[in-house]
Amino acid sequence: MQRFLRSLRFLELALPIAAVLIAFAIGGVLLALLGANPFEAYWVLISGAFGSVGGLASTLTKMTPLLLVALGICISFRGGVINIGGEGQIIVGALAATAFTLWLRDWPGWLLLPLTLIVGALAGAVWGGIAGVLKARLNVNEILSTVMLNAIALQLMNFLLRGPMLDPAQIAAGTNIAQSEALPRSVWLTRLAPPTLLHSGVILALVLAVLVYLLLWRTTIGFRIRTVGLNPSAARYAGMPVPFYVAFSLILAGGFAGLAGAVEVTGVSHRMLEGLSGGYGFSGIVAALFGKLHPLGAIPASFLFGGLLVGANKMQLTVQVPSALITVINGLVVMFVVASEVYVRRARRRAGREAAEASLKRESSTPSAEAAVP
Amino acid sequence: MRKVSWGLILVLIVGLILAACAAPVAAPAGGGQAAATEAAAEAESAGPIRVALLMPSTINDISWSQSMYVSLKELQDELGADKLEIAYSENMFNVPDAAAAIRDYASSGYNLVIAHGAQYGDSLMDIAPDFPDVSFAWGTTTRTGKDQGIENIFAYEPRGDQAGYVTGVLAAKLTKSKIIGLVGPVDAGDAKLHVDGFLAGVKATDPDVKVNVSFTGSFGDTALAAEAANTHIRAGADVLTGSAQQVVGAIGVAKENGVPWLGVQADQSTAAPEIVLASAIYDWTQLLRDIIAMREAGTMGGEVLQLTYANGGIRTIYSDALPAEAVEAAKAAEAGLADGSITIVVEPR
Amino acid sequence: MFHEFLSVATLIGIANSGVRLATPYLYAALGEMFGQRSGVLNLGVEGVMLMGAFAAYYTVYIGGDPWLGVLAAIIVGALMGLLMALISVTMQAQQGISGIGLTLFGVGLSSLLLKVLVGSPIGISGFSTWKVPGLNSIPVIGPIFFEHNILVYIAYLLVPVSLYVLYRTTFGLKIRAVGQNPEAADSLGVRVNAVRYGTVMLGSAMAGIAGASLSIGLLNIFQENMTNGLGFIAVALVYFGGWRPLGVLIGALLFSTVNALQLWMQVLGVPIPSDLAVMMPYLLTIVVLAVGGQRIRQPAALTKPYERGE
């Protein structure tokens, strides 16, 4: 027991929980100041997200786009590229998927649905690829280009949704709400637990998480992406085309975000709407990093973070606190969890040193290199 | 190794939750369908009507969402807090989130759920049939879903074009430079309706007046809205108007330059009383009263309600600083819209 | 329509708007530049700006002098910077993610404070336009540069000040050393983390003023989430400017002037969909950087936390 308490594994487990608890404690003070009972509020948050079939279904629904975006983030951050263009990539993916489906609406679903998802992913990949190629070819920093491309995608959506892609029913009714026509039923993803919104996209996301894991750790391409991210000069020295892999990791990241957009359209809203990206482009980064930039770690991370978002909405609804308070608590959780990692890292380094010393004594030396993330 | 630890966290948390669920805690949210219907029935017999409101922005956006929240509050003051209970969810810009909230409200005993945004309509059509004892309302729309056999959705439609028209008449009367500036958010939905009405009102009053229209491309870009106001003023505009929560920026600039501002949706005079000379406000109280009365009479939905000058749902608040002639013209326009002698002709832009 | 568009008055109007619109970007991006030069990427500028904007607004709202409002924005901004430094420098957190956390925190807290302390936004009287006597009567130049509020002038004065601090002072030297090679700086006795605390807090204080330049300078009001992504643009402009004050100035002016241009195009009825017009500054910023080419390398230690004795 003593050994377990000092072990790395325990720290890795306990620290994020402690960090969340501290964040909740501060949030609790704010809740109390606003006249709400913090214990009731947090009970609602947790039970709302995980405590019922409906809640769990909502959490899983929320987890789907988060996980998809997070997978792309895992690839790009491992490749040394900071992609904060998820929002724009989601929007473009969703727009393209919608347009494609509405264009070929008479095609049979078994053909149209996969094609729609692929088109969404391709569009996102193109959007991410613009940033990627600009960085690889012209040395344009990806933070700059992705921030700008987010704004451009938003305006592109505004333009398309009130002009070329505006729902004819909206024109007929004269209301002109910025939304597209509904997608044909043939491309709707299967609802897994009606009446909740949970759809089969979640399975797709989980399968892709495993595939991304295999890509990053079991293929040459993945090895190269990681090498380029870890040490570009070494990669160059080893003869790898570094710019290619930089662009490629942004293309993949964009593809996953675009797919998230297509999945939201075909699984949840069944049409293109404003506000569809829902901040997943940023929340996905948080989920990826909580999952230690590991595709399989991203699964529980996006599940928990999705739950936090779902539970927070329930909390607003039940305890009647302003939504801004929930944003504050989310911010605190993100900051504290990410800050707590330093202790894990230190402990791991200590353990690594001890192991190295031990192995030196045994005259065999293979200290495990710690994966540095950007 | 990391995978294992994450798995452990997951197991731990799920375990905690399951343990907690087993304990008989009276949590207001969650719960199954059966509990929900029970709660609804209980609430019905207990007396107070419980209203839930979902909004895309916040209760202090001094436009769309605030207008509805303020009306609900006024109605509550009038009826008493023991007769009308209000709950609300703000910043529901993401539609699936809103859908989840609508379902939650419906299943936790609320009698009337108002989804205050046209983007929520399709979710509502999905949800409403599952809760026949609950009434729903949404707008801007005329679609109640009655043609699909849904009986418990009210549709409402504020005639933004009427509000725009009267404001336009007023603006045309006020301008001396014959140039008016309009700071819009996105050229769609209620904002578009307002712009179309405004242009018609100006044109009907004085065809020589030019309206410069600009959009910031977002509902919240206050800085760009401010600069748009600056631009309008430099381009010769001496009366400004606009819509959405972004306009606070434009109002600030109007104030600094002493240029009159005409507001819509909510009373925007709080932002700068000296230059906000009129606000065409949406007053939802009568509409809400009507919905509640219909519910009590057994009509759960299926009706389309409008906010118009005729039914008092749109009112223009005039400042004392306005010239009498301008107010007269605007009031004549109000009357004309109310009795139908004025029809708004929308011209393509 | 087009002759109207090319008139001198219009061109002056565009330039005047561009100069004014660049103000918040200048404060925030120059501040962020210091942090990045020392190796810390603060993605939380947006949240810091909102907190600064609210602090300044509220100070004036309860009857304070606008200058007191600026002071409040500086203090609140620096405190947000302290939080960021604590997490990113001492706790060595991932800088991308801690910044997103700080943004959420600032966005939420400023909205919450508005709701609790004020309610619906109420207008205030902040800084008003101060035409620089004498200078404002110079033809063309006067109306473009010398008809603004005082916070606009200060923003531009900060460009030479930043140049001086960065390249002519010991502090500037330390900043650059810490951002380029923290180990070497450390071995020469520079306290790496102390310098980083300094730059992050300085940068956040400037982001606080950026917020104030909106809430008590340009707009005279506070509204929930009023920066609307401006903070992220400011971070992007640091990259555009190649971590140099003059580059940041050019970026901020380019972005805002194109923004002013598209507003004028809309106002004068140039037949272009408004959404596509709004897109222009974002598009052009990328295109200019791509075509102009950028060979400036980022500070070598950017986003890399430093720990002694390894």
How does this model look, in words?
With 374 residues, chain A is mostly helical. Helices cover 75% and strands 0% of the residues of chain A. In chain A, helix 3 packs across helix 14 (298-319), helix 5 (86-103) packs parallel to helix 7 (142-162) and helix 6 (109-138) packs antiparallel against helix 12. Chain A is globular. Chain A starts with a helix and ends in a 13-residue tail after the last helix. Chain B folds into 2 domains: 32-158 and 285-307, Response regulator (Rossmann fold); 160-281 and 319-339, Rossmann fold (3-Layer(aba) Sandwich), CATH 3.40.50.2300. The N and C termini of chain B lie far apart (63 Å). Chain C has a single domain (2-119, 152-292), classed as ABC transporter involved in vitamin B12 uptake, BtuC (Orthogonal Bundle). Chain C has a two-stranded antiparallel ribbon. Chain C is an all-alpha fold. Chain C has helices at 2-5, 8-37, 45-61, 66-90, 95-118, 141-145, 150-168, 170-180, 182-187, 192-218, 230-240, 245-267, 274-292, and strands spanning 129-131, 147-149. In chain C, helix 2 runs antiparallel to helix 10 (192-218), helix 3 crosses helix 10 (192-218) and helix 8 (170-180) packs across helix 10 (192-218). The longest helix of chain C has 30 residues, at 8-37. Classes of the chains: A mainly alpha (374), B alpha/beta (349), C mainly alpha (310).
Topology:
The complex is a heterotrimer of chains A (374), B (349) and C (310).
Chain A: H1 2-6, H2 8-33, H3 38-50, H4 53-78, H5 86-103, H6 109-138, H7 142-162, H8 168-173, H9 201-218, H10 220-230, H11 232-237, H12 242-269, H13 280-290, H14 298-319, H15 323-361
Chain B: H1 2-22, H2 33-46, E1 49-54, H3 64-79, E2 84-89, H4 95-107, E3 112-115, H5 121-127, E4 135-139, E5 153-158, H6 160-174, E6 179-184, H7 189-205, E7 210-215, H8 222-234, E8 239-242, H9 247-257, E9 261-265, E10 276-282, H10 285-296, E11 304-307, E12 314-318, H11 324-339
Parallel strand pairs in B: 1-2, 1-3, 3-4, 4-5, 5-11, 6-7, 6-8, 8-9, 9-10
Antiparallel strand pairs in B: 10-12
Helix pairs in contact in B: 6-7, 6-11, 8-9
Chain C: H1 2-5, H2 8-37, H3 45-61, H4 66-90, H5 95-118, E1 129-131, H6 141-145, E2 147-149, H7 150-168, H8 170-180, H9 182-187, H10 192-218, H11 230-240, H12 245-267, H13 274-292
Antiparallel strand pairs in C: 1-2
